[in-house]
Amino acid sequence: MKTIIFVLTLICSTLAAPESLRQHFRRNPKQINPSPRVVGGNIAEPHSLPYQVFLEFYTETSGKYCAGSLISPNYVLTCASCANGTVEVLVTLGAHNIYLTEPTQINVYSTDIIVHEDFSELYGGGNDIALVKLPKTITYTDAIQPVALPKRADIDKDYIGEVGRMAGWGVDFGFTVDVMFDVLRYFDATVISRHDKECQLYEETDDMFCTSGEYNDTYVGPCDGDEGTGLVSDGVLIGINAFNVYCLESLPGFHTRVASFLDWISYNSDVIIDQERLIETVMDALIDNRIIYVLEDNNWHYKEQDLTKTIELSDETMKTIIFVLTLICSTLAAPESPRPHFRRNFKQISPSPRVVGGNIAEPHSLPYQVFLEFYTETYGKYCGGSLISPNYILTCASCANGTVEVLVTLGAHNIFLTEPAQINVYSTDIIVHEGFNEIYGPFNDIALVKLPKAISYTEAIQPVALPKRADVDKVYIGQVGRVAGWGSDNGLRDEIFDVLRYFDTTVISSEDKDCDLYITPEDMFCTAGEYEDVYVSPCNGDEGSGFALGGVLIGINAFNVYCLDGLPGYHTSVTIYLDWISDNTDIVIE
Fold first, then answer.
1. Contacts of 299 (CB under 8 A, 6+ apart)
2. CA angle, corner 161, sides to 159 and 164, nearest 5?
3. DSSP 460
4. How far is CA 144 from each of CA 49, 167, 226, rounded to the nearest angstrom?
5. Which helix or strand (DSSP H or E) is residue 107 part of?
6. In whole angstroms, what separates CA 378 from the centre of its chain?
7. pTM, 2 dp
8. Cα separation of 157 and 24, whole Å?
9. Are 575 and 564 in contact (CB under 8 A)?
10. Pairing of strands 179-181, 113-115
11. Rg of the chain's alpha carbons, rounded to an integer?
12. Each residue of 441-497: pLDDT tens digit?
């Protein structure tokens, strides 16, 4: 149980901001007096943890309480599993007893909730981090102070054996929906290895770590309502509580590793991550002609600009230094687009011996394979696709949904090189299936990209055949197909392969025990996670890539279960969408 949800009545609270219709739903849960154990917790000295923040997140119909950490006068850091899907949050700073109106408290509402762009509750852990921007800058007091963030030198630090402190107002046992503590409590816990038997109860991602469920012979652990709270070691925020295993005695807590997200925090907030390193970064960027950093009001801001834009700051802004670093479009980029190839920000990784069961493809042996960089107004994500005509690319809706532009790279083998076979074009004509909805699961997970002009076929650029209408009821179970892409091999979004890789795998029944790990919609099918005694799987960045069988595109990779050894891949069945493809493209399907 990651969050607790209460039904909210939409009436004004006496404590609520006057423009808000929501009341403090904390007044609905029962107050409970701390037990002798309190999941190993102790009552905190009032305001001894002045960075601690109480958060009430609201959707349109419900609410949930969580915690966070103040990291600047304008931002609170919390977990995405609390913030995702919400529209407003009541932020309480400087609190000890959240049921009282204490003179130290500040209560403000915010609708500026920033969830990590790659977080998905459907896929489990990973990128479980979020920010809340406060509606106005708060003034520090003895009861309200920020917590320090790790330095960039700590990015590879594992913290194993270090003791940190967590605090919150959450319950002391799981499966509860109507109880919570009035006063702030805390406990200390030790960071343990991800290879520890306790930590292996749940498959954690590389951007997470575990804390032991026992400290000084006492059971300790965060519980429901403590999600989003910080784990602080020596005054530094090293973790964000993401989830707990039902708050059971001796079981570990799982935390997002803050050091893994320093760039994301810096990009999305006003926080300076060790200023000396930032100056070096700025100078590197100046040489590289890529980035703009602006220092205004003693806060650094990272911005993206093109050659034709300038930074205009209001007269009220007390700017001290402005570095304007021109963002020269890559030679591969279309000149009319303001966006650089963000793949240049990703680490290139050399293929490992296993590569999730993949092999390096013979250059241009899969000429229908397309690399896609989708952009929203604020971030980008990379995916795969398949050329199906001179004008159209087929991909998945979970990649295309909510985006406004896509950079299409055709004829590529090494996407970090300017190969003579490559064609790069931008498109804003993105067609997502009208029935797709990420909230309700991976149904209708199909999309099209219309190219701005018809491309000419070459040896490196060729379309893949679509199924025939006679194949609509075909199930393909037991047949072997091929998946290709440039995606990661370990479930991370900050690594990407340079050259195209592929693997073969077998279509399995939706009733197979492997496929049953996730509910498979009728418009999808599974492929086995093992082929010829080798683990195989598409991974992050391979979503949207085609599953081709005998030269025919029968599937589109939709999602994968953490890219874990032996677990299946899930694909949208192309045969079910032949009419939709025909209606939205220039393709005549036989």
1. 72, 270, 271, 272
2. 70
3. T
4. 8, 15, 19
5. strand 106-110
6. 14
7. 0.46
8. 39
9. no
10. unpaired
11. 25
12. 568 999 999 999 999 999 999 999 999 999 888 889 999 999 999 887 655 444 677
Q: What is the amino acid identity at position 70?
A: L
Question: What does the alpha-carbon distance between residue 152 and residue 504 come to, in Å, rounded to a whole number?
Answer: 40
d(CA 535, CA 125): 21
User: Going by C-beta distance under 8 Å and a sequence separation of 6 or more, which residues neighbour residue 407?
Assistant: 333, 334, 337, 339, 341, 372, 373, 375, 424, 425, 426
Which helix H or strand E contains 395, and what residues bound it? strand 392-395
> Shortest CA distance to 396 belongs to which of 385, 380, 407, 409?
385
CB 271 within 8 A of CB 72: yes
Q: Token pair for residue 498?
A: 């340079």
Q: Is the Cβ–Cβ distance between 41 and 34 less than 8 Å?
A: yes
| Strand partners for 377 | none
Which residue is listed with tokens 């989003």? Answer: 228
pLDDT single digits (tens) 146-200: 999 998 888 888 889 899 998 988 765 444 444 567 899 888 888 988 777 667 6
201-205, 221-225, 508-512: lowest mean pLDDT where? 201-205
Q: CATH number of the domain at 342-584, please? A: 2.40.10.10
pLDDT band with cut points at 50, 70 and 90 for residue 278 = very low
| Separation of alpha carbons 590 and 575, rounded Å | 12
Which tokens belong to 17?
């901001």
| Residues 422, 341: Cα–Cα separation, whole Å | 14
Question: Position 293: which residue type?
Answer: Y
DSSP-derived letter for residue 183 is: B
How many Å apart are CA 319 and CA 295, to the nearest integer? 7
C-alpha dihedral, 188 to 194 to 196 to 201, nearest 10°: 90
Q: Where do the domains of the chain lie?
A: 6-25+35-260, 275-323, 342-584
Output the pLDDT for position 124.
52
Coil, helix or strand at residue 489: coil
Dihedral through CA 143, CA 148, CA 149, CA 150, nearest 10? -150
State CA 97 to chain mean position distance: 33
SS3 113: strand
Distance of CA 120 to the CA centre of its chain: 6
Between the two ends of the chain, the Cα-to-Cα distance in Å is 49
Q: How far apart are CA 533 and CA 59, in angstroms?
A: 46
CB 354 within 8 A of CB 347: no
- The dihedral region occupied by 354, where left means phi > 0, alpha psi between -120 and 50, and beta the remainder, is alpha
- Residue written as tokens 């042996």? 365
Q: Environment class of residue 5 by beta-carbon count within 10 Å: exposed (0-12), middle (13-18) or buried (19+)?
A: middle
> Which residue in this structure is represented by tokens 């762009």?
117
Domain made up of 6-25+35-260: CATH architecture: Beta Barrel (2.40)
Q: Do residues 83 and 91 make contact, with C-beta atoms less than 8 angstroms apart?
A: no
Position 377: which residue type? E
CA-wise closest residue to 263 among 155, 397, 386: 155
DSSP string, 251-304: EEEEEEEGGGGHHHHHHHSS--S-HHHHHHHHHHHHHHT--EEEEETTEEEEE-
C-beta of residue 340 within 8 angstroms of C-beta of residue 333: yes
Pair of tokens at residue 102: 């204490």
Same fold, 6-25+35-260 and 342-584: yes
